[in-house]
Write a structure and sequence with these properties.
25% helix, ATP binding, ATPase AAA-type core domain-containing protein, ATP hydrolysis activity
């Protein structure tokens, strides 16, 4: 399980270290940094696919993703406020520590400048054992392109070939012959799952009939909803699936029909003479059914990150959704980003292992409310 998420120099997050629990509820007003924290987790997952650089390019490039405030703070304590010119090396850093392994990546500007002006370079990476990076616990160290790995006897071994500036050690060196910890960490991050604003509009993929094939996890766009439901019925907990539907819509049930090699999901409701297809149900009903499939997956991921799952749901559905999330937190570590006070309260009531993290916009960027410097989780970045 992840214990700490650390971010530095990323958009509104100048310096942040957040404690994580089996169910972490991230709240805060608009503009407080919730979405950036969500993106920081997705950036870590992208590193395992060698996609961290491309992910930042899609956000507008390294220049758009950097902390936009002064390097030395706002000057609120009487010190001078910095101008627009940066004096220290540009650095965007994200990392985490867990029960067994930790990882951090440090990205900066290309040196020398290249034609790929939006792409940052990976300057440092580190993998370590234990809750905090220490010299004795470090297992993998990457400085620019040079990589060294600690062997079974604790001695550093230099990797023969250097990495390119856009290649991560997680993507390129996850080889059990040289670094079994890298393979384990890479596999873990690649199984993280993210859901952000599942589509329910009239042309949403979830309203169509997917190919009839086993689907162990719902796609990020929800297009294989019927196949995911069929798989839960086949090898998962079919009774829990129907119970989740009844919890939100008393007396109702879902059914997956197979026609010409495609699955069709329908909803039976009391008082109706025929079931409703997904093309006919309301946006709120479809969204809830998508969460039933996503959270009831037959292959729970190590980490499940949900961005505002309560969006477009009637308040009457929030208790049922909270129970779904709490149940998922028994099988996966879950991070929920939400601005709904009512939903967050329901989540806290539904899970004794939950932790609320409230973010606020301070003069020096995003802060955790009521978290002083001495309250922060222990954290140490690899130096350049």
């Amino acid at each position: 399980m992840l214990r700490t998420l650390a971010v530095e120099g990323y958009r509104s997050l100048r310096h942040l270290a957040v404690p994580l629990a089996p169910l972490t509820i991230v709240t805060g007003e608009n503009g407080s940094g919730k979405s950036t924290l969500y993106r920081a987790l997705s950036l870590l997952a992208a590193a395992a696919h060698d996609g961290a650089v491309a992910a930042l390019a899609r956000e507008g490039g390294i220049g758009s993703a950097l902390w936009a405030g002064p390097e030395n703070g706002s000057g609120r304590h009487g010190g001078p406020t910095q101008g627009t010119v940066r004096r220290r090396p540009v650095s965007l850093r994200v990392g985490f520590s867990g029960d067994d392994l930790g990882y951090a990546i440090d990205l900066g500007l290309p040196t020398p400048p290249t034609r790929f002006v939006l792409d940052p370079e990976i300057k440092r990476e580190s993998v370590w054992a234990g809750p905090v990076l220490t010299p004795a616990g470090e297992l993998v160290d990457r400085a620019n392109g040079a990589v060294r790995i600690r062997d079974d006897e604790g001695r550093w071994q230099q990797v023969d070939h250097p990495l390119r500036p856009y290649e991560s050690v997680l993507g390129e060196l996850g080889d059990p012959r040289g670094a079994p910890e890298l393979l384990a960490l890479r596999d873990r991050l690649r199984r993280w799952r993210f859901y952000d604003q599942l589509r329910t509009d009239a042309h949403a993929p979830a309203r169509t009939d997917p190919i009839a094939t086993r689907t162990v996890s719902l796609a990020s766009d929800g297009g294989d909803l019927a196949a995911a439901m069929a798989t839960i019925e086949d090898v998962g907990d079919a009774d829990a699936l129907q119970a989740a539907v009844r919890s939100a819509f008393p007396g109702s049930r879902v059914q997956v029909q197979e026609r010409d090699g495609r699955f069709r999901l329908v909803l039976h409701q009391p008082g109706l003479l025929r079931p409703l297809s997904m093309a006919e149900v309301s946006d709120g009903t479809l969204r809830y059914l998508l969460w039933v499939a996503a959270l009831g997956t037959v292959r729970p991921p190590p980490l499940l990150v949900l961005n505002e799952p309560e969006t477009s749901l009637h308040p009457g559905l929030l208790p049922a959704l909270a129970e779904l999330v709490a149940g998922a937190a028994q099988r996966s570590q879950v991070v929920v980003v939400s601005h709904s006070v009512a939903f967050c309260s329901l989540l806290e009531q539904s899970s004794p292992d939950s932790r609320s993290v409230e973010l606020a916009r301070g003069t020096d960027g995003t802060v955790v409310v009521d978290q002083g410097r001495l309250d922060e989780p222990s954290w140490r970045w690899p130096g350049r």
